[in-house]
Amino acid sequence: EVQLQASGGGSVQVGGSLRLSCAAPGFPLDDTGIGWFRQAPGKEREGVSCISPRDGSTWYDDSVKGRFTISSDNAKNTVYLQMNSLKPEDTAVYYCAAERSYYCSGHESFYSNWGQGTQVTVSS
Fold it and tell me: What angle do CA 96, 30, 39 make, to 5 degrees?
């Protein structure tokens, strides 16, 4: 069974940074769309960012634009989410998801492969 592995979460103070990693063994990133999602306590899971292999295009939710950056290292089959200027409202469990496609999406229904989450906690 091919699995995704999200890591890099932790606890930081407001304004701090974290880099999440999504290891995707078995998913050639030149034809796999990768998305990052998060779920805060009591809330629905929401799309944060995604990267399309077709042209490297990216998408960000408005709440993270200018603060988060998604990137991929195809040689390592790993996608990163650099999170800067973190806010308490960024506190959530973060998940990565993959779909064999030339595109990506911020909608979770697009993806059929999910990794376990990694907790991000931002304290003031």
Answer: 10
* Contact (CB, 8 A) for 40 and 114: no
Amino acid symbol at 44: E
Judged against a pLDDT cut of 80, whether residue 1 lies above it is answered with no
Query: Could you tell me the two tokens for 49?
Result: 């960012």
Give the residue from 63, 83, 65 showing the smallest Cα distance to 21: 83
Rounded CA-CA distance 29/40 in Å is 28
Comparing CA positions, the residue from 122, 123, 124, 120 lying closest to residue 37 is 120
**Cα angle: 86, vertex 67, 56; to 5 degrees:** 135
Torsion of CA 39, 44, 45, 46, to 10 degrees: -110
The alpha carbon torsion through 57, 106, 29, 84 (nearest 10 deg) reads 70
Which tokens in the block code for residue 25? Answer: 């063994």
- The string of pLDDT tens digits covering residues 75-96 is 999 999 999 999 999 999 999 9
CA atoms within 13 A on the CB side of 20: 33
